[in-house]
Amino acid sequence: MLKTEKQLLQSIKAQTAKGNRDNISRTKAYEQFFRLHPEIQWSFLAGMVSRNAGWNMCDLEGIWFSDLLGLKYRHHLFLTYEEANWRIFQDAYPQLLLYHYSTKYGRPLFHLCHHFFITKFMKNEWYSFWKHGNREKLVTALIINEQNIIEEPVIKKAIIRFSFSIIFPAGLDAF
Length: 175
Hints:
Layout: H1 3-19, H2 23-36, H3 41-59, H4 63-68, H5 71-105, H6 120-132, H7 135-167
């Protein structure tokens, strides 16, 4: 691996960590990326979804939800939003940055995907986009990929956690 590639990997890791501090930083990172690369339509969608998740997270403490849902349930929902958005950003943002640096250096850098645990599926989709420029195919691939990223560790876990809290609202300590 070239020294410049090692430096690039460190830079991408640092930028991803900085952008993944909280929902506001994630939303801003997606929006900034989209301003630089409007051809990557998924980054616009990700910014909108991230912003909407942030609103939903704030709404959990508003007058309506605090009256309708218990504190523990609202906390579970908040953590579910946070974990899903964190995982998606942790996976997607390095992909976006690899694309950014590919455009900057005029050559695809997607051979570096494995350093960020990016799936082979997405690596192939980025190479395809680089070669053919099919925006719709890339958007679809990114949506499918990110759904897979959160399906098992977040969605299924949340369903079990929420079901448990409905069946045993006081928790097992009540027994």
